[in-house]
Amino acid sequence: MIKHFLNLEWKAFFRSATLGKSIAIKILMGFFLLYFAIIFSFAGFFMIKILGKTHPNISPFVAFNSFIFFWILADLLFRFFFQKLPVMSVKPLLTTPIKRSSIVNYVLKKSIVSFANFLPLLTIIPFGITLMINGNESVQTVIVWWLVLILVILINNFLNFILESLSAQTELSFLPIIILTGVLFGLNHFNIINLSSLLSSAVMGIAHNPLYLITPVVILGVVYGINFNLLHKKLFLDSGLKEKIKEVNAANLEWTKNFGDIAPFLQLDLKMILRNKRTKSSVWILVMGLLYGLFFYPQPVYQNATWFFMLIGVFSTGIFLISFGQFIPAWDSGYYKLLMSQNIKYEQYLKSKFTLMAFSVVALFVLGIPYVYFGYKVLIAHFVAAIYNIGVNTHVIMWGGSFNRKKINLDQKAAFNYQGTGAVQWLIGIPLLLLPLGLFALICFLINFEVACTVIGVMGIIGIVLHPKLMKLITKKYTASKYQMIAAFNQES
Amino acid sequence: MITTSNLSKKYNNKQVLNIETLEIPKGQSFGLVGNNGAGKTTYFSLLLDLIQPTTGHIINNNMQVDKSEDWKPFTSAFIDESFLIGYLTPEEYFYFIGELRGQNKADVDALVAQYEDFFHGEILGQKKYLRDLSKGNQKKAGIVAALIGNPEVIILDEPFANLDPTTQIRLKGIVKNLAETKGVTVLISSHDLLHVTDVCERIVVLEKGQIVKDIQTSEATLKELEAHFAG
């Protein structure tokens, strides 16, 4: 059975329409993973030395175990955002004589073969070996300790999928995990329940007395069972389809009429943003972008680095512009054929996107005015950045959009969803962020802050003045690549 | 109304469509039949300028479709679900199409009201997004949207597929009415020979991209078509 499943997956990967992209991303991921693997194994080999420095009075084994609680929390958080239950298209299999339970078991077992499960082994195995060699602990204790930790890893693995499936229905899907880990951390931090020492003595207790291994085994069995039931229930066609349909209230966006001939597109764009999973779940990116400055401005190092203000200015006023603009026109990829066969003016279509982005820049600038707390120069830099965003970046990003060839499925979540992302999206970042930052910094160093602001501001104003001309050019570019876009958006990725 | 000359389409040197000449007069109800891969959808896509012809061109009311865009105001189509905007309710979708075609809400309401029995109470006022409707109901919404704005040319790809029998019969009535009383040129493709012969004045059979039959519909047409496809 497993042979069949593996065979199907092999074909799914190599015959997918976007093979080139997946391989490129896989290679990039490979480097990241290699980097982590090296760090983790180094940490394992030198753990005794490290702990000897930080905790000179207790044995390295005890010291390490006291961290297990925090490791579990961090591991859960990390898994929640990065590890997904292996996907398998089960629909065609449901009518074949394969038992539902073997499909579920296969998916669950496959999840064990995840990098997230192997990474900790790279630390604990060298650490355990050095413990044995140095004679800190007996061979038996170390082996049992390994078993305990492997069981803990697996428990975490399956616990994560339970959390994910429970929170998948809610809008703010990351809230439950934040609350859970936050509460556990809080309970421990404020010494209400000393979970970290409880856990560490439990782990060491089992390590010295292998019979207690039965406890983590039972817990693992329970979380696996819960997962099995959750998945088994979902393995029916209608359960996936039924729950989605909610009553909707038709929105009345009459006020958009003030924008004249772009009103229908503006309404469409707003509805698109408000009614789709992918767009809705990227709202938190806006919040992050707006608060981006708080990572830097409170630090005295950046207080005087005026040349750096431009980056934060462009980013925090342009976060919507960047996250929305980079996927023009892929947002409309699902019904691009309709738009192209309708009596529409491309220019109106693009102008609606421009208007939306320009307004977002103004709104984000206004929301960011409190940054003036960190000095009036910050506000000036942000103001200039906003002008540059409206005048230059909107046009640059729309021009880049004409190279867009990747379909977007609006029904999927956004966090760490790279669907629709191609080389263009990365390349476009250079003129978008690096050019204003580089120019601004250069003039700041050579002349001064005021001149730098003037130059960037003037560039933005030139862009705004030339707006009608630029729109004509961009429209031409879109018209020229019409057929390629239609063909590309027709392909499921 | 629609003149096709020397039209061909190749994908990687494989010819999928080759029509030397095809003339569709105004007000004709025109049926296109053929097995899978015969080139029906390819022809409709070329007609809507969604793909580029390898050679030749189509002229729609004196306008070459891949050169000018002025044919768009009087041409409408429903090819497949990608003509629907999934996150709109049917009403919002009708209004959006209406606005693109210069119709205000009252115009759209008046037109849509005519098709209430076609909808069978499953489209309007359902408070559902188009993406949550069944395939058949999505199709109903798409077909009616193609009627908005008094188009002179209407292109429907496989309109009968996925529809229930009642709706199929009603659709036939709608199409006949459009061609006979309003002088609309209706282009339909179908696998259902009975429906096409019922509705269309003229039927063209495509086979591997070539026109192999061009029939003015009569009593004998259905037999003729059945004989052709059986052989």
From TrEMBL, chain A:
Q: Provide the transmembrane region boundaries.
A: 23-48, 60-82, 112-131, 143-163, 172-190, 210-231, 281-299, 305-331, 352-373, 379-403, 415-434, 440-466
Question: Which InterPro entries does the UniProt record give?
Answer: DUF5687 (IPR043742)
Concerning Pfam families, the annotation shows: DUF5687 (PF18940)
Q: Which domain of life is it from?
A: Bacteria
What does the UniProt keyword field contain?
Membrane, Transmembrane, Transmembrane helix
Q: What is this protein called?
A: Uncharacterized protein
UniProtKB/TrEMBL annotation, chain B:
Q: Does the keyword ATP-binding apply?
A: yes
Arranged from A to Z, the UniProt key words for this protein are:
ATP-binding, Nucleotide-binding, Transport
Organism superkingdom: Bacteria
Output the InterPro entries linked to this UniProt entry.
AAA+_ATPase (IPR003593), ABC_transporter-like_ATP-bd (IPR003439), ABC_transporter-like_CS (IPR017871), ABC_Transporter_VariousFunc (IPR051782), P-loop_NTPase (IPR027417)
- The ABC transporter domain covers 2-230
Q: Which SMART domains match?
A: AAA
Q: Establish whether keyword Ribosomal protein is in the entry.
A: no
| Classification via Pfam families | ABC_tran
One molecular function GO term is:
ATP binding
The record's listing under PANTHER family reads: ABC TRANSPORTER ATP-BINDING PROTEIN ALBC-RELATED
Q: What is this protein called?
A: ABC transporter ATP-binding protein
